[in-house]
Amino acid sequence: MRRWLLLLPLVLFLVLAVFLYRGLFLDPQSLPSALIGKPFPAFQLPAVQGGGMLSRDAFLGRPALVNVWGTWCVACRDEHPVLNTLKAQGVVIYGVNYKDDNAAAQKWLAQFHDPYQLNVADADGSLGVDLGVYGAPETFLIDAKGVVRFKHVGVIDQQVWREQLAGRYQQLLDEAGQ
Amino acid sequence: MSLRALLAGAALALSAALAHAAIDTYTFADDTQRQRFVELTGELRCPKCQNQDIADSNAPIAADLRREIVRLLGEGKSDRQIIDYMVDRYGEFIRYRPALSLRTGLLWFGPALLLLAGAAVVAIRVRRRQAGAAQALSADEQERLARLLDEHRP
User: Fold this and answer.
1) Which PROSITE patterns does the annotation name (chain A) (predicted)?
2) Where in the sequence is the domain holding A78, given as residue range(s)?
3) Cβ contacts (< 8 Å) between B128 and chain A: which residues?
4) How far, in Å, CA of A139 to CA of A94, rounded?
5) Cβ-defined contact of B89 to A129 (cutoff 8 Å)
6) pLDDT tens for residues B86-110?
7) How are the residues of chain B apportioned to helix, strand and coil, as percentages rounded to the nearest 5?
8) What is the C-alpha to C-alpha distance for residues A156 and A150, in angstroms, rounded to an integer?
């Protein structure tokens, strides 16, 4: 009658093994953003290209990518040509120049082409803290109302764009179109 | 141990002590606030170097978060408010001590449950064995046992 109890340890072991096996393929470096579904944080910061202060309102109206970058960030250099390509395809990209020297940022944009509609100078990283940024590059996908819908940590290359971002961006465009 | 080895050991210990903590200078209103700073930075995990707390980490982001905590302490925020502030931005991940919720229930109580289950198994087995031993031999059986032992004695 109680024979099946003998199988209990085996079942427990199997459940545990499946859990741990799946854990082997998780990336501990990729953290879910705490901001998904929340409005993009408010800020009041100068524009990298000059011309006064920018606030959260500047990011509203269209679905967009918000790219956190810096000239000190080596990976951002790899990412930059991809952002240029996306801009040419009509993707709206805003920049957050994170803990950077403004002159260096201006030079970088002149030298490598400027894919950003607007660029916010977050010199002391306060917006970065509000965004939960822990390394650049990081890219947020926001909808037309300025709600964060997705976050990608690391370089955006063609594959990342194709597999993770393009579909979501299109979906936001469709939503905004309605 | 030679003198040279002794000196090398001392130098190593000294450099380890120096390298232990990231060095910043902050000013606190009082010692309680300093103590709270030490506790908070020891309880929050650095998002960049994930196996260090933000007190211990040299990553720039950890320095930013330490500065942020000093600012919040200066504004008179409670420990709870400061931790919530960090969780709102960096997610539950940043807490070394996870919040007690339905999702973390297993994490908090799992070990105790396993311990209890183990204790229950041990208790059941011991009781069964005692019940087995309590069935002592009858007088007939004892006599037969003695005879058998006698027969086989050399």
Assistant:
1) THIOREDOXIN_1 (PS00194), THIOREDOXIN_2 (PS51352)
2) 38-177
3) none
4) 10
5) yes
6) 999 998 889 988 888 888 888 899 9
7) 65, 5, 30
8) 13
- Alpha-carbon distance A116 to A64, whole Å? 10
- Closest residue, chain A, to B114 (C-alpha): A12
Interface confidence, given as ipTM, is: 0.79
DSSP B71-126: HHHHTT--HHHHHHHHHHHH-GGGBSS---STTTHHHHHHHHHHHHHHHHHHHHHH
Q: Which long-range contacts (CB under 8 A, 24 or more apart) does A165-168 make?
A: A165/A65, A165/A139, A165/A141, A168/A141
**Cβ separation A129–B87 shorter than 8 A:** no
Residue position matching structure tokens 């980490």: B57
Interface test with A, best of B87, B90, B94 (most A CBs within 10 A): B90
How much is the average pLDDT of A61-67?
94
Domain count, chain A: 1
pLDDT digits (tens, 9 = 90+) for A7-43: 888 999 999 999 999 988 887 777 778 889 999 999 9
Each domain of chain B, given as residue ranges in start order, spans: 3-94, 105-151
Q: Is residue A99 in a domain? A: yes
**CATH assignment at residue A156:** 3.40.30.10
Alpha-carbon distance of B148 to B140, in angstroms, equals: 12
Render pLDDT for A121-175 as a digit per residue (tens, 0 to 9).
999 889 999 999 988 899 999 999 999 999 999 899 999 999 999 999 999 999 8
Q: How far is CA B107 from CA A31, A80, B95, in A?
A: 19, 42, 14
Chain B residues with CB-CB distance to A137 below 8 A: none
pLDDT at A102: 92
Closest Cβ opposite residue A134 in set B48, B68, B92: B48
pTM recorded for the entire structure: 0.74
Task: Tell which of A129, A138, A148 to mutate to test the B interface (max B CBs under 10 Å).
Answer: A129
Which residue has tokens 């311990």? Answer: B115
